């Protein structure tokens, strides 16, 4: 009976199968990439032994004081000093081409002895011989650096060539969001380089007992140990590594859950329509002795079989999808070893089983609800027609008969269109959400979520002992450059802030004129007076500070009270920054960063190239390029998701339209036959069906667009809230969002309506009379 029923209703059964299969594919794929990401990142971190805490420092320091501190604190399990030789990008070449266009800061390092190892592509500790170099995987992918290529370091009359012998994975600095990259060379080579160019920077790296990071930060600051740089926790490193892949996992899982919900709605609709159509048959079965329980099992079996087959195929397809989307994860982090394959195959099975349980329980509830009628009611074939309502025909006749009848029937039978309406909302939402996310990330104004106002160029001055002199030289040039509309110079340094526990933490501060490139603040405004400070969203949250409250800073052994003037969004430096008018001592500065706006007619790329030739000690980056390099991986991922969601959404719209039309035509065959008997042609009836579906679709697209533009912003903000941006304003491409996407959705549905509605030709009044 089940097999015959599936054969009889091939299209409807196939559509339900497709819904369940697609949701199983996405659920399985999302779980698989999630497992792959977590296990690969954890495996890389374990083999590399990333530090629990890192304190960066430039300049001389007291080695004995550091050693004594380590000896006197039992929670420190291991300690080492990693020396990094910072090299200007203009002094670094790949196959003759300078790195000066790269946003990344580059440092040469030798392999560490105790922990924080740089690994090769087999996730083994990389060994580099003299004259060779290990290049980060980031440069392999972004700049096309390959094994055997030449990397040249050149300054003045000094030059040295290295052969790329290894592509390395750096558990600390793999992510594009980490703006520094380490290049691995031999110990002898780094000593030679240091005597000719570059500047040393030190990383004080700690392995700690669990839960000791807060104690270390407090004790380290209290001991007044070297801290001319940022402090980074291992958890922040892990968060940066998981950010880009975490977004795609969240999106895939969300789509999968929504698809299961839509499949459940379709299932409900199909079961109710089937039971209504076979009401008299069910009545006969009950009359001859079948119990409700037996009938329920019989009808439930069909949908369980469909769900099982869809789940198996979806599981296999989802694993292929997961492996495809996991390629970049494996490339950057490697494959985890051990029993990971069992976990990667096992956890998606649990997801598919959950889907099967949802379908089974849903079938039981829906069928039970529809078997409440008495045997007499079922034998009579009584249905819910009386609940559909009615509409009046116009007294003076039809002006547009097809439109009048279509909207009249839509008014009476709106309940049967709820499922397709929800699917159209979902499809529109699904198309627009990733598209709007990608547009927002790629737009120059996304800079505001990185803690600075929108600008054309970013200029960095760092890695030099005469930082102030370089800044003055840059300022003199900018003042005399007729192409520049405005610029602002910002100091970046660190101070200490009093936290809620009465202890001192490090805080990174930007000091400069905030009015030149203003931000949109979540709350309050930019600091104007010398006693005002603005906090990033995560800093305000962690310090539990609101607008108007006091905050105590300690700089150069002086405690100063500030008033919180504003709270802004920032996803850089782990989302923990601040802005204040604090004059840093030159030796305490990390960098000067200058933001520049050019006059409208000036070509940004051309001007950037010109400034690089003049300002040889500075790093000049167009803001679009800055965003592309920092968030390029995320943007590429969103591009893949955007294409996939368009295809899935159109497929869903076509499937659900086909299914609903088939069910409506079967249910309304009497009405169709009567209309044809009184003079309506097949084309008239097809037009009436098309008007109903397209009216529902246009309304659904409108609602979906509103939700994507509003609720979608909240979703994106929720994704980024852990990184420092809680409230995102979508930057929408109106042509794509409001013309192209709705147009292609309407066209796809129009085509399927045209094809499926041809079935009205088989309904005739003579057949209804015979029946």
From TrEMBL:
Superkingdom of this protein's organism: Bacteria
A cellular-component GO term for this protein: plasma membrane
Transmembrane parts of this sequence: 12-35, 247-271, 301-322, 342-367, 417-437, 643-664, 739-757
InterPro entries on file: ABC3_permease_C, Membrane_comp_ABC_pdt
Localisation: Cell membrane
Keywords attached to this entry: Cell membrane, Membrane, Transmembrane, Transmembrane helix
Keyword NAD among record annotations: no
Record domain ABC3 transporter permease C-terminal: where: 254-373, 646-762
Record membrane topology: Multi-pass membrane protein
Coarse class of the protein's main subcellular location: membrane
Name the record gives this protein: ABC transporter, permease protein
